[in-house]
Design brief:
4 helices, Double Stranded RNA Binding Domain, 2 domains, flat, alpha+beta, 5 strands
Length: 176
């Protein structure tokens, strides 16, 4: 009896090892086409050459400041590109939970941007990015107003970060 138990344990261990080897092999063969590249100095120089136009309002100021902070790492270069962008907030909608009333709201903010070459005036990339936030977990009116203000500010910064990542990908693809 103990002999069959021992053979069962050994068989289970061998099948586990075989399964592990097969899984590792599948993972390694699946990742064969993936290329990982760094942001080179050429890409950083391209990002430093982008002129950022100011946006109005508190969210616009935060958005523009975050763009400049992320684009002009190491200093600002000679302007060869112009980034025209605008942010807009869609109407907040109240979230409903089945069987209960809720004070939570969902806010969406969209950043539309257009990168133009200053020498030709040609549009290089035009896109829009959207981000969402849930707010209003507090019951006081003052707390709800503050929650909405903070959500707008967080979304403006998040959108700027996403726009910079999209521009990095654009220049990375152009360098290939």
């Amino acid at each position: 009896m103990w002999l069959s138990s021992l053979f069962g344990t050994i068989a289970a261990l061998r099948s586990f090892r075989l399964g592990s080897v097969i899984l590792c092999g599948l993972i390694l063969t699946n990742c064969g086409d993936v290329t990982i590249r760094q942001l080179g100095t050429e890409n950083l120089q391209n990002l430093q050459q982008i002129a950022v136009q100011d946006e109005s309002g508190r969210e616009g100021q935060l958005y523009s400041r975050e763009l400049r902070k992320l684009l002009h790492i190491g200093g600002k270069g000679v302007e060869n590109y112009n980034l025209i962008s605008s942010i807009s907030v869609s109407a907040s909608s109240t979230l409903s939970v089945q069987g209960a009333s809720s004070t939570l709201k969902k806010m969406s903010m969209t950043a539309s941007f257009d990168l133009r070459d200053l020498t030709t005036g040609e549009s290089l990339i035009a896109d829009s990015i959207t981000a969402d936030a849930t707010l209003g977990a507090v019951t006081s009116l003052y707390g709800q107003d503050k929650s909405e203000t903070h959500a707008r500010e967080r979304l403006a910064i998040l959108l700027a970060q996403r726009v910079v990542r999209r521009l990095q990908l654009y220049f990375l693809n152009q360098s290939q």
